[in-house]
Amino acid sequence: MSGLEIDGMTVLDRRGRAVISNVSLRAAAGEVVAVTGPSGSGKSTFLRALLDALPPQLRRVGGTVRWAGETIPPGRPARRWRHRTARIVGQDPAAALNPLQRVHSLVAEGAPDMQVARRTLDDLGLDSAELWRRRPRQLSGGQAQRVALARALAGDPALLVLDEPTTGLDPEALELVVRAISKRRGDGRSVTLLVSHDRDFVATVSDRVVLLGHARTAIPKRTNLKPAAPVFSASGLAISQGGTPLLQDGSVELREHELVAVLGPSGCGKSSMLRTFAGLHEANAGELRWRGGSLPVKVEHRTHPQLRAVQFVAQDPASTLNPAHRVGNAIARTAQVLLGVPPAAARERAGELLRMVGLDGAAKRLPRELSGGQRQRVSLARALAAEPDVLLADEITSALDEATAHDVLDLLDRLRSGGLAVLLVTHDRTIADRADRTLRLHQRGLLPESTDRSEESRAR
Question: How many domains does the structure of the chain reveal?
Answer without folding.
Answer: 2
